[in-house]
Amino acid sequence: MEYMIGVDLGGTFIKAGPVSKSGNLLYEISIPSQAEISPESVVSQIGKAVATIREKYPHDRLIGVGIGSPGLVDLDGGTVKYPPNFKNWTVFRLGEETARVTGVGVEVENDANAAAVGEMKFGSARGMRDFIMVTLGTGVGGGVVIGGKVFRGQSGGAGEIGHMTVNFDGPQCKCGNRGCVEAYVGQRYLSQRVSDQLIFHHDSLINKLIDSGVEQLEPKIISQAADRGDAFALQVWKEAGMYVGVAIASTFNLFDISTAVIGGGVAKAGKPLFDSIEETVRSRVLSPLRPKTKIIPAALENSGILGAAALIAE
Amino acid sequence: MEYMIGVDLGGTFIKAGPVSKSGNLLYEISIPSQAEISPESVVSQIGKAVATIREKYPHDRLIGVGIGSPGLVDLDGGTVKYPPNFKNWTVFRLGEETARVTGVGVEVENDANAAAVGEMKFGSARGMRDFIMVTLGTGVGGGVVIGGKVFRGQSGGAGEIGHMTVNFDGPQCKCGNRGCVEAYVGQRYLSQRVSDQLIFHHDSLINKLIDSGVEQLEPKIISQAADRGDAFALQVWKEAGMYVGVAIASTFNLFDISTAVIGGGVAKAGKPLFDSIEETVRSRVLSPLRPKTKIIPAALENSGILGAAALIAE
Question: Cα separation of B46 and A173, whole Å?
Fold first, then answer.
């Protein structure tokens, strides 16, 4: 067997696993990323993860290691700049250093872009040449695929859909701007806003589901309430979908693209969220794009690892 | 001499003129576009304009005719779809028909994109490979240049910066969306908003400058007042610059571009507008782009004709 290793590099954990050429994740390991120490520690941890996986497959050929990383990834395919929440990390040749430690070829891509490549190779964007990918998680990630290639821009920073302004006078975002879509639907912002509003919704099921306090207020709680028909919870997803839809409509207008693939933990909200995104995009995008508009859920469960592995499959 | 003819096709008038290869507009004519009749009438009028110009230069070689057109222009370089305010015009092969009538090669491009090409060839974006062009007029036009080429998207409709949402709950735009940047700073929207607000600003100089009624309230009146230090007029340009800046910052984030060239009649407001655009973009764009941000006024006086002629120079 020939296989790739996909590495999903996060601020707390490295998730990694062997992936077959057809996109099957064979198993998954998770080890601390040691991002709080230094980039060298992170490389050493990635090296350990790769070695652990290779030991299990002594007779198979590892084609390469793909890494999905936070931060700006340079066009040279390996330099990662200023990943948020990584200590002592300014500009570091992550690809080169990982190749040295592991002895195999390494490809690095921004995690949101890697997720887009993963969906294109193995997921719900198979066969698509032009689409945007939006990842709804702690942050709101974005990737733009044009003609089957990630659109990276001059320095690899393109596709930042999460930091499009949907209201110039909106809430403060940690990027410095106001009213970014991330400042509305990034997981913590969303949970905070819902918890602030809960006092006006005494009868909402959400109150019962978080018996031990609002710090429990994760999107899945809101979804549990919405699944049972809770009006406030449904309204939360409707609004969230509107914010996301506004950003997608502007992105469609700019790129002349009409398909969006939506993934990430918050996207598990499912139908109430997706219906609202679709309705918003259709009513706001320029008329030539309206009939072509498609909003599709991401298909990959482990898009972080599979997207990273897909960088090698390219 | 070898020369091009640039044709600026508008809903009321066709402006056209001979342009030297170095970008000098030798003279300019203006004839009715007959857009209220049919696409065939428009072609016939373009033919007349071209013939009139050629008669003046019997010993010189016409290289080709460039047309900047409203509406969606197809990648085949000649089909114009649904130009707003043109009667009986759905999908029409403007390039092919004009070539037949004039007997020379014809290039057609969307007018906002043509303006971007004009600035790149002859104007303030000379030598630039990556920039966006924003045209502030009746509408807000947009063009994105990547690697020295207009980014057109799948069907030629890309770059619609004017219809980016800057406030999801903002004023109704004629495109069907709410809160587009055009719905704030498109000339008529802007004039209307200022005239609505004038009753709260009795002491504004604008009141004196429009002695015969608010229908006179063109952007140049606001500028005249601003030039004399009128606080309300200055505030109008500051706000307009904020709206434009918000859209530009989102566009920069998406394309990983850091230069914007701003043209069009409303851009004649000058410093108070440009200062506000620049301040807004710098405070809102993602931090890696902040130090590189450049907001530049367009240089071409007749960008409609020169941009169209530049399509031939390409």
Answer: 51
pLDDT of A146 strictly over 90:
yes
pLDDT at residue A85, rounded to an integer: 83
**Among A158, A166, A168, beta carbon nearest to B256:** A158
What are the chain B neighbours of A161 within 8 Å (beta carbons)?
Answer: 254
The backbone torsions φ and ψ at residue B274, rounded to the nearest 5 degrees and listed phi first, read -65, -40
pLDDT value of position A212: 65
Hey, is the C-beta of B150 within 8 angstroms of any chain A C-beta?
Answer: no
User: Which pLDDT band, with edges at 50, 70 and 90, does A217 fall under?
Assistant: confident
- The pLDDT confidence band at residue A214, using thresholds 50, 70 and 90, is low
* Closest CA in chain A for residue B284: A177
Q: Does B254 touch chain A (CB under 8 A)?
A: yes
Query: Which residue carries 């400042």 as its tokens?
Result: A183
Dmax over Cα atoms in chain A, in whole Å? 62
**Is B207 in the A-facing interface, judged by CB distances under 8 Å?**
no
Q: What is the mean pLDDT of residues B17-45?
A: 96
**In chain B, residues 53-72 whose CB comes closer than 8 Å to chain A:** 72
* Residue whose C-alpha is closest to residue A80's, from A133, A161, A163, A156: A156
Please state the rounded mean pLDDT for residues A197-210: 91
% pLDDT > 70, chain B: 98
What angle, 0 to 180 degrees and rounded to 10, lies between the N-to-C axes of helices A219-227 and A231-255?
110
Full set of structural domains in chain B with CATH: 2-120+302-313 (3.30.420.40), 127-297 (3.30.420.40)
Interchain CB contact of A212 with B (< 8 Å): no
Q: Map tokens 């120490």 to a residue.
A: A37
Percent of chain A with pLDDT over 70: 98
Asked if the Cβ–Cβ distance from B168 to A286 is below 8 Å, we say no
What is the C-alpha separation between B29 and B18, in angstroms, rounded? 9
**Which of A292, A266, A268, A265 minimizes the C-alpha distance to A278?**
A292
Burial of B202 (C-beta count, 10 Å sphere; 0-12/13-18/19+): exposed
Using the structure block, give the residue that is written with the tokens 């890494």: A67
What pLDDT does residue B214 have? 65
CB–CB of A307/A116 below 8 Å? yes
Interface touch A165/B242, C-beta < 8 Å: no
Across residues A284-301, what is the average pLDDT?
A: 95
CA A72, CA A8: separation in Å to the nearest integer? 15
Predicted structure pTM score: 0.94
Asked if A255 lies within 8 A of B158 by C-beta distance, the reply is yes
Enumerate the residues of chain B whose CB falls inside 8 A of the CB of residue A144. Answer: 254
- The pLDDT tens digits for B241-261 are 999 999 999 999 999 999 999
Q: Is A282 on the interface with B (CB under 8 A)?
A: no
Cβ(B248)–Cβ(B296) below 8 Å: no
Specify the amino acid at residue A18. P
Residues A18-31 pLDDT 10s? 999 999 999 999 99
Facing residue for B160 by CB, picked from A166, A247, A254: A254
Say yes or no: A166 contacts chain B, CB-CB below 8 A: yes
Pair B48, B7: CB distance under 8 Å: no
